[in-house]
Amino acid sequence: MLAVDVINAGKPYGKVDQLMKEEGWKGGREDTRLYRKVREEKQRILASHYERIRPFLDERGRRVWAANEAIRFGRGGIRAVAEALGMSQVTVVAGVKELRASPDKASKEIARRQRRSGGGRKSITIKYPGIVGAIEGIVDASTRGDPMASLKWTCKSLENIREELSKSGYEVSCPTIGTILREQLEYSLQGLKKTKEGSSHEDRNAQFEYLNRKCREFQERGQPVISVDTKKKELVGDFKNAGREWRPKGKPEEVRGHDFEDKELGKAIPYGIYDIGKNQGWVSVGIDHDTAQFAVHSIGSWWRQMGQETYPGATALMITADAGGSNGYRTRLWKRELQRLADETRLTITVCHLPPGTSKWNKIEHRMFCHITQNWRGRPLVSLDAIVNLIADTRTTKGLTIHSALDQNTYEKGIKVSDEEMAQLSITRDEFHGEWNYCFHPRKGTA
């Protein structure tokens, strides 16, 4: 007896036999409804059996097992098994032929291999021996500066590469190109990496060492040290904000399709002050222009609202700032306004600028601004009040707290500070890069 006959002697469809007995079906196809019901039950059982053993079978094993079940199924077995298992009927027919072939006629190669010798689609590199080199020539980074490069001015997507290859007679699909790029050329999808800092000042490191030394001196004396900067301007209104937050499934908050400024709502200009020693922050949200007057007024607001209470005995203040912008070291208005702040607060104000091109190392960027951005991610900044509240509600596990207030003052642009006004400043410049490191002393007779 053949192995197939032994398997067929069993009763794998016990539930089907019971169903047929209960319905009183004695055979034949006169009862179409019952026939379909029995067929569907057989297919369901067959599919469950297949899923149980499928992980343990190779390609040939799955084909032979399906063929055996088709023989056991009876009339219409090949089609029924193919539908139940999601196979091609051609595959099941091939398996039936293998099972019905005499063992004496089965070659050793068939017994050893899943497919017959030479079976399967030929590799694309065999059909097109030069395709790997052609693809590498298109995507090679060294061709970027070549005016004759095929894709110099286009995105090197798989579709664009495919189009360029077709011009050379290579008819290949995008998935095949992706496979060659990954497996044979060892390419991968990569974004741009920010590593080039541009020109670097020869005293860059020395300035950082000077700045750190000054910070330690002030902190050891119990004097405040703050980091200041302007955060990115934000559109006010129901505009898209980067990030995601939890909402009911399929119900995202709807915002405008285009980021055109709402002239009535305008923009918000957050200027931040970060207390390095206390891990506390202040943000003035301006509505006009990011000028030196706005920057110094924000520092004054921090001192009146937070700093004065935190440092009741302070006689000096140290400010670390970027080299450019509204608080840049070349800005005369910045210096004039700081002198006025020193006169008003009676504080000796020391300023140390970060070297040019190093704004990312400003403490406020990675200790305060990043947390504000994280707190309002995925939320439209619908109003100025919403912006102020979102900033003020920012917290971290390290104890960061932030206070915020709206600054509705207007600040004129393009104010010129004369040489006479500069000469009246009580400013002392340090011997080491006095343009970056300087100090304002309160002038007598002013308050």
Explain this structure.
The protein has 17 helices and 9 strands. With 447 residues, the chain is an alpha/beta fold. The protein folds into 3 domains: 3-112, no CATH class; 124-184; 204-240 and 263-440, 2-Layer Sandwich (Nucleotidyltransferase, domain 5). Strands 1, 2, 3, 4, 5, 6, 7, 8 and 9 form a 9-stranded mixed sheet that branches. Helix 2 packs antiparallel against helix 3 and helix 13 packs parallel to helix 14 (332-345). The protein is elongated. It starts with a helix and ends in a 7-residue tail after the last strand. Mean pLDDT is 84; it is low at 1-12.
What is this structure's SSE topology?
Elements: H1 3-8, H2 14-23, H3 32-53, H4 59-73, H5 77-85, H6 89-100, H7 108-112, H8 124-127, H9 131-139, H10 158-167, H11 174-184, H12 204-220, E1 225-230, E2 234-235, E3 267-275, E4 280-286, H13 292-310, E5 316-321, H14 332-345, E6 348-353, H15 363-375, H16 384-392, E7 401-407, H17 419-423, E8 427-429, E9 437-440
Parallel strand pairs: 1-5, 4-7, 5-6
Antiparallel strand pairs: 1-3, 2-3, 3-4, 6-9, 8-9
Helix pairs in contact: 2-3, 3-5, 4-5, 4-6, 5-6, 10-11, 13-14
SS-derived structural category: alpha/beta
* Low-pLDDT ranges: 1-12
Strand elements, count = 9
Helix content: 40-55%
CATH class of the largest domain: Alpha Beta
Q: Identify the CATH homologous superfamily of the largest domain.
A: Ribonuclease H-like superfamily/Ribonuclease H
Radius of gyration (Å): 38 Å
